[in-house]
What we know:
Elements: E1 3-8, H1 14-31, E2 47-53, E3 56-64, E4 73-80, H2 89-105, E5 110-115, H3 119-123, E6 128-136, E7 139-146
Amino acid sequence: MLKIRIKSFSELTTNELYTILQLRSEVFVVEQNCVYQDIDAKDQKALHVIGLKNNKIIAYTRVFKPGDYFSEASIGRVVVKQSERKYNYGHQIVEASINIINTNFNETTIKISAQTYLKKFYESHGFQKIGEEYLEDNIPHIAMKKK
């Protein structure tokens, strides 16, 4: 079971921010072989959902209130360290993120931009595909919404 912490950007320690950016780079840039601008000036608006195992950050998302990313509340940068994926921490961090949006923003409608191959994963959390597939940073994505 993951221990979940929620922090605003200003509450993150330097070491936490470094570890989060390192994890995002490890997965989205190196593992997925995708050169893109991860540091996008949106982290300052987000709530950071940190998943800890043995006091180490192994899972992460960032969540936004309506209007800060999409017109709806949203979840992004969903990431789990590769060596930890077999323990279903992805499901735990997404469920925690949904609950945080419900509780902190009093919102139930959530929009995401999901990598297409994760469609079934997000459907298991109540998201439904909206629109057509598109390329984002040269990776196939789909918009999905949970109401």
